[in-house]
Amino acid sequence: xxxxxxxxxxxxxxxxxxxxxxxxxxxxxxxxxxxxxxxxxxxxxxxxxxxxxxxxxxxxxxxxxxxxxxxxxxxxxxxxxxxxxxxxxxxxxxxxxxxxxxxxxxxxxxxxxxxxxxxxxxxxxxxxxxxxxxxxxxxxxxxxxxxxxxxxxxxxxxxxxxxxxxxxxxxxxxxxxxxxxxxxxxxxxxxxxxxxxxxxxxxxxxxxxxxxxxxxxxxxxxxxxxxxxxxxxxxxxxxxxxxxxxxxxxxxxxxxx
Length: 257
What we know:
By secondary structure, the chain is mostly beta strands. Helices cover about 0% and strands about 55% of the residues. A hairpin with a 2-residue loop joins strand 13 (about 135-145) and strand 14.
């Protein structure tokens, strides 16, 4: 939980677990273990000094530090979210967040984070700068209806149309200027792909249901799950299914469950 405790629920108390807004979680990074999934330059580090959730986050503190991650399934409809911690007016660090696309743009859509505020660059429409304030902030890039819109704390910084066949497939955090001491922490980064809306199946009486991204359903008994996969025991044997393929799971509601 967000307050750092584990809560256990009997499966008979839970109808199911589903994704919000017909979206599939492609990946999630909490910066708790390593930067192995990232291409890093300038030796950015994991820091325990600030964390939105958990024990550590990504820290950018020197010019030239950079962390980049791409994913195998580019999308035109979905979202990218993360939290960043502004260290306040004493910081001189200027940072950027770039969104990489396929085919690549000459100038990627970018958010600039500096002591004066947060603003968009390389976007067709910019809606002004949001004044910087110390503490944690949510940055959300939303892709829908052929356009990208970027928000910080629900304030829209700007929007730009996506080119024909353009999809987003990566994110890059960079520290580009630090005249004095400055720090920017990044935490809880995630990318989700939006799917066509479908009506959810009804929970069965005797078997659990695993609901796949294209609407298919697998029946059996769910015997385990973690942050990456769900394990289903069915007639075809035990199978691990990645959450990135699932719209949700439903637990059997009869006595036999």
